[in-house]
Specification:
Strand order of the largest sheet: 1-2-3-4-5-6
Structural class: alpha/beta
Distance between the termini: 43 Å
Largest sheet: 6 strands, mixed
Length: 264
């Protein structure tokens, strides 16, 4: 039986641990810190067998060296074309990997960084396919464009938008309430967004994560996946007119949304 657990790190990171309760084997995703992972593995009698890396930022790879020293047999999988070169298995978009019978497709999702990849498994865990997407797609948000372009990020999100609607989206940060404040400022009359914000506020007030989300909900709520939704298009064009930004194509609409969030 497989389970996925959130390991909090830093102020708002989530390191994801996929574990096999029958064997005690574990896979972790984007371990920016080693100690929280070690504590989780020890408390649950787990052995680290694999590490998945989505991109090179320190808050995603900072714990890899220490974990590799503690569990030298753990395979480290990461993007081939990346500043992070400590992977023992380097993968590119289109590749496939296996861990304990779970097959992951490697998806290219540049934008936040140029080396960014995501891992999608059609095998259901807790009743849903699984997406580990790092900093590309957040709950009601998306990653900042530190290296890539709006066009690249929109195409990356289009790639994710085509996955099964019931896919569980395991992103790497608890940014949900801030993202929802922005989304609600653009779409104040959207009742689904208002209800979702209230739901997420209750979770955070109780110390619970808002992640994972569900892709079908993201497609319905997240403005960064709704560049072709008339309500979002209208808001983007109004924003573009005020800020002298073009909003005459899907890429330009997405760029206006990202600019709006960056300056919110």
């Amino acid at each position: 039986m497989f389970t996925i657990s959130a390991i909090p790190a830093f102020n708002d990171n989530y390191i994801w641990c996929l574990s096999d309760s029958e064997t005690g084997g574990a896979l972790v995703v984007d371990p920016g810190q080693a100690q929280p992972v070690q504590d989780h593995l020890t408390a649950n009698n787990l052995t680290l067998e694999a590490i998945l890396i989505t991109h090179h930022h320190p808050d995603h790879v900072g714990g890899v060296s220490q974990l590799g020293a503690t569990w030298p047999d753990a395979e480290i999988t990461g993007p081939a074309e990346s500043p992070f070169q400590d992977s023992t298995r380097k993968v590119s978009p289109g590749d496939a990997i296996q861990w304990r019978g779970i097959g992951f497709q490697v998806l290219g999702v540049p934008g936040h960084t140029l080396d960014h990849i995501a891992y999608f498994a059609g095998t259901e865990v807790d009743g849903r396919p699984v997406l580990f997407c790092g900093d590309t797609l957040f709950v009601c948000g998306c990653g900042r464009l530190f290296e890539g372009s709006p066009e690249q990020m929109r195409q990356s999100l289009q790639t994710l938008r085509t996955l099964p609607e019931k896919t569980a989206v395991y992103c790497a940060h608890e940014y949900t309430l801030a993202n929802l404040r922005f989304a609600r400022s653009w779409l104040p009359d959207d009742p689904a967004l208002k209800a979702f914000e209230q739901q997420c506020q209750v979770l955070r007030d109780n110390g619970e994560p808002t992640v994972p989300s569900v892709l079908g909900d993201e497609k319905r709520l997240n403005p960064f996946l709704r560049w072709d939704d008339p309500a979002v298009m209208d808001a983007a064009r109004q924003y573009g007119a005020r800020n002298q930004l073009p909003a005459d194509s899907e890429n330009a609409i997405f760029a206006a949304i990202r600019h709006g969030k960056d300056h919110f």
